[in-house]
């Protein structure tokens, strides 16, 4: 005689969650009882890639990080849906029961992935994947000159060939005549330094 389980599927999930909470609480309690606790200023600082924190952590955060994180979560959740889909798609009993099952499951996943890829293309075309969005500012000048005049000037300029700029050098370069003026004489420094003695005090001589 087959025994009927008294625990429903939700009961099994509840037991699984309860056991997980008990294990986490046990590990935290053992860590508090066994691990040494000697806090200091160095241990209490936040660890971020080995760098010492500077200033306060309560600063404005760049919203571009959230955009990239949301796109990552979007495709991360997609993988969560793909794994059970592959399990069901590989079920041979379902395919044997209805021959259209494989085609339907494949088309369903193709539509699901296409929607996500279409969203990614939209975000990429909008420039949200770029860290700094380029803002092209076109100059706007109000003039009364018609556009046909500019087109005519451009057509006339295309008729003229631009000549390359070259520097022509003469074949004969005349020599520079030598200067007839005598060169200035060099200033000679004195060979000795004159010294002057201070005269003796006359009042000292009489004493």
From TrEMBL:
It comes from the Bacteria. Residues 179-207 are annotated as: Disordered. The chain crosses the membrane at residues 13-34, 65-85, 105-124. Gene3D superfamilies: NADH:ubiquinone/plastoquinone oxidoreductase, chain 3. Its main location: membrane. The keyword Transport applies. Keywords: Cell membrane, Membrane, NAD, Quinone, Translocase, Transmembrane, Transmembrane helix, Transport. Residues 198-207 have a biased composition (Basic and acidic residues). It holds the Pfam family Oxidored_q4. InterPro entries: NAD(P)H_OxRDtase_bac/plastid (IPR023043), NADH_UbQ/plastoQ_OxRdtase_su3 (IPR000440), NDAH_ubi_oxred_su3_sf (IPR038430). The keyword Metal-binding does not apply. Signal peptide: none annotated. It is found in: Cell membrane; Membrane. It is an enzyme of class 7 (translocase). It is a multi-pass membrane protein. GO terms for molecular function: NADH dehydrogenase (quinone) (non-electrogenic) activity; NADH dehydrogenase (ubiquinone) activity; quinone binding. It catalyses: a quinone + NADH + 5 H(+)(in) = a quinol + NAD(+) + 4 H(+)(out). PANTHER family: NADH-UBIQUINONE OXIDOREDUCTASE CHAIN 3. NDH-1 shuttles electrons from NADH, via FMN and iron-sulfur (Fe-S) centers, to quinones in the respiratory chain. The immediate electron acceptor for the enzyme in this species is believed to be a menaquinone. Couples the redox reaction to proton translocation (for every two electrons transferred, four hydrogen ions are translocated across the cytoplasmic membrane), and thus conserves the redox energy in a proton gradient. Belongs to the complex I subunit 3 family. NDH-1 is composed of 14 different subunits. Subunits NuoA, H, J, K, L, M, N constitute the membrane sector of the complex. This is NADH-quinone oxidoreductase subunit A. The gene is nuoA.
């Amino acid at each position: 005689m087959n025994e009927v389980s008294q625990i429903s599927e939700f009961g099994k999930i509840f037991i699984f969650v309860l056991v997980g909470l008990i294990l986490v609480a046990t590990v935290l309690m053992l860590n508090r009882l066994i691990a040494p606790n000697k806090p200091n200023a160095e241990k209490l600082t936040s660890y971020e890639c080995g760098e010492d924190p500077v200033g306060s952590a309560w600063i404005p955060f760049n919203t571009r990080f959230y955009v990239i994180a949301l796109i990552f979560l979007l495709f991360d959740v997609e993988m969560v849906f793909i794994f059970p889909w592959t399990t069901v798609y590989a079920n041979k009993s379902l395919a044997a029961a209805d021959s259209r099952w494989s085609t339907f499951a494949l088309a369903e996943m193709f539509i699901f992935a296409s929607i996500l890829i279409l969203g990614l293309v939209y975000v990429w075309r909008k420039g949200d994947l770029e860290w700094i969005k380029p803002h092209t500012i076109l100059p706007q000048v109000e003039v009364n000159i018609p556009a046909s005049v500019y087109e005519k000037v451009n057509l006339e300029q295309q008729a003229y060939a631009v000549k390359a700029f070259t520097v022509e050098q003469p074949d004969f370069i005349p020599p520079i005549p030598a200067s007839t003026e005598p060169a200035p004489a060099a200033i000679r420094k004195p060979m000795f330094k004159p010294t002057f003695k201070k005269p003796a005090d006359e009042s000292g001589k009489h004493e």
